[in-house]
Amino acid sequence: MNITTRTHQDITILLPEGKITLGDGDQELGEAVRQALEKGARKIVLNLEKVTYMDSSGVGELVGCYTSIKNRGGELRICGMNARIFNLITMTSLHSVFDVKDTEAEAIAAF
User: Fold this and answer.
1) In whole angstroms, what separates CA 21 from the centre of its chain?
2) How far is residue 40's CA from residue 8's CA, in Å, rounded to a whole number?
3) Number of alpha carbons in the 13 Å side-chain half-sphere of residue 66
4) Which of 15, 40, 58, 102 has a CA between 20 and 30 Å from the CA of residue 34?
5) Under CATH, to which class is 2-109 assigned?
6) What is the pLDDT of residues 1-30, one digit of tens each?
7) Sign of CA dihedral 19, 22, 24, 29
8) pTM for this structure?
9) What is the pLDDT of residues 43-95, one digit of tens each?
10) What ranges in 1-111 are assigned the alpha helix state H?
11) Residue 107: closest CA among 8, 41, 30
């Protein structure tokens, strides 16, 4: 998995590419969020538009990222989910926990 990190004003945008599954991308995502938090990021957008597949381990990592960000006084917005990932988030009722937006622009504007 490759994760691109960039900033827009005081917002950190993480753009993972590939799969987020057990042993393939889940730990990298968590590490990218931890690094952003250590650098002082408190507004984080996770843009999943280039994520092709996510399993329950990936969903668990999203929950872990959300918890880490909240514990540091930060906010997380998730955007760009394909239909399969959105359905997975909806089935687990996490759409009511996560702040989900359709596009990166909407996620940025929500801060």
Assistant:
1) 14
2) 14
3) 15
4) 102
5) alpha beta
6) 899 999 999 999 999 999 999 888 879 999
7) positive
8) 0.94
9) 999 999 999 999 989 999 999 999 999 999 999 999 999 999 999 999 989 98
10) 26-38, 56-71, 83-91, 104-109
11) 8
